[in-house]
Amino acid sequence: MKMLGILKHSIRYCRRPVAANLQSTIGSTNSNKRTLDGQLDLRCTHVRHVHDDAKRVAEHESVIFRQMFDGETYTYTYLLGCPETRAAILIDPVYEMVDRDVKVAEEMELDIIYGLNTHVHADHVTGTGKLKELLPRFKSVISKSSGAKADIHLEDGAEFKFGNQCIKCLSTPGHTGGCMTYVLPEHAMAFTGDALLIRACGRTDFQEGDSGKLYESVWRKIFTLPNHFYLYPGHDYRGFSRTTVAEEKKFNPRLTLDKEKFVQFMKELDLAYPKLIDKSLPANLKCGEISKEAILGSEDVLSHMGNH
Amino acid sequence: MKMLGILKHSIRYCRRPVAANLQSTIGSTNSNKRTLDGQLDLRCTHVRHVHDDAKRVAEHESVIFRQMFDGETYTYTYLLGCPETRAAILIDPVYEMVDRDVKVAEEMELDIIYGLNTHVHADHVTGTGKLKELLPRFKSVISKSSGAKADIHLEDGAEFKFGNQCIKCLSTPGHTGGCMTYVLPEHAMAFTGDALLIRACGRTDFQEGDSGKLYESVWRKIFTLPNHFYLYPGHDYRGFSRTTVAEEKKFNPRLTLDKEKFVQFMKELDLAYPKLIDKSLPANLKCGEISKEAILGSEDVLSHMGNH
């Protein structure tokens, strides 16, 4: 009970297995009372532990994290912040969404100092140029092998730091020649760009795309991360927000093919959508909708190959 | 070092504050080597701690959680699972997305036994009816005060359990007469439905909507949760995925008004969009786009009131 006095927002919680309650109405004789300090009483009746709220805060704030979406191009932008120094980064910012990103970072008292691109995007304009104009300290970051201009270039195996946070850089080419996966080992998170999408992957038919290389990148780099690591993709077209290494190893309909079949699949996908290449290029055109068709339509190609 | 031998995916990580590295190219002399068991070596050079990977897995799996989006109606559906019993729930499933939700739950070896609606939706058809057809054990759940048909009705203060997980139910009327916020105290999460949206709130001009009641619900219930609790809304129209109690208390442009001004604002919002009422009703019409206009357009109303 001493802990309850120390913690401002003390909460008890239930952990005991309880059979599904199938009463038609579930009420409470203790209907939302308040604790002595005016907080809502969130205790559940089957109390086993006193919740260490201070620990929970620390855990939740070990890294500040927000996933943000651009519905026009189906692009995810990630805001990551160091809770101690307030230094922050954006991964794959979108030009049109920069004002939103800067505003929310300001409100969260975060100082965006880097913008990391996972690769040279072909389906949306990166926000890093606009961010450089808006924020005097801001630096753009991309892989050296991308061949793109940037303030900082990263090589395979590099460690990149913001505040007290550490990112490990994995070169994962195949979608483009310079794709990079950014891993936060401490937080069991990896940002895969278009190398690996949820139950899908990026196309490989332009920008030094190479389906054999992509297959190796995914299996030798991303899929050798621990099974429980969360994977956050560059895009999603079906409303998913994250996946895990374990899930994609087992259920990604493309990457669970053997290498030869995967290469064949990626080739047939292009044959099925020949107009996409012209429409996706040049870089920086907004072709999110077209990508959506390519992802959703891939099930037809897979079914021809007997995968479904 | 003994711990390293025990843990399969042992990772070291860096916590020491490191000045921003502004070298133009950041490489590594230890480019993605592998550990003895074939895992990628994710160590950062400034090692302070040996990462307790087993603890991290336990932390990550204290509740299974996926946020899913329906781009047609801008609705978030939440899949929550008990890692021990595999019992799972969906909060606010959308009719058209049920097949997606059921498939991903199957792949994650989760057994969806309940579908909880935060309220009677007017902008999309709930998926709970379809889920009852697909899953024999599935039960629909909603507040008693909603007046809606369901297998289980909940009252303010009720505790609702799935597997070893416990949800505390907070009655938060105002958007509709029967709105419920579902809180997982152990995981510092609350699902607010349309009572509170990120930097916004649900409309209050139909279905027993009452802006005075909504104001009280938010301030007396949602905003008295601990500051660090994550809030997950029923919709978002700008690409945000979550917020915190602290942020909304400070930056929600509507709820930071005093009560009188808030009521006036909600009234003026309707006057500015009179056609919305007819289009939003009857219930179950898909009016996501219209809601989007109402949210985005609210900045004009606020600016007239001198709030911006």
Please provide a brief summary of the model.
With about 300 residues, chain A is of the alpha/beta class. In chain A, about 25% of the residues lie in helices and about 25% in strands.
The name of the CATH architecture of the largest domain in chain A is 4-Layer Sandwich
Poorly predicted parts of chain A: 1-23, 46-60, 274-291
Which chain pair shows the most residues in contact? A-B, 94 and 95 residues
Percent strand of chain A equals: 15-25%
- Going across the major beta sheet of chain A, what is the strand order? 4-5-6-7-8-9
Major β-sheet of chain A, in short? 6 strands, mixed
Oligomer: homodimer
**The CATH topology of the largest domain in chain A, please?**
Metallo-beta-lactamase, Chain A
Classify the helix fraction of chain A into a percent range: 25-40%
Number of domains of chain A: 2
The H/E string of chain A reads: HEEEHEEEHEHEEEEEEHEEHHHH
Gross morphology of chain A is: globular
CATH class of the largest domain in chain A: Alpha Beta
Mean pLDDT of chain A: 80
Number of helices of chain A: 9
Pfam family, one (chains A, B): Lactamase_B
Keywords (chains A, B): Metal-binding
InterPro entries (chains A, B): Metallo-B-lactamas, Mito_Persulfide_Diox, POD-like_MBL-fold, RibonucZ/Hydroxyglut_hydro
Protein name (chains A, B): Metallo-beta-lactamase domain-containing protein
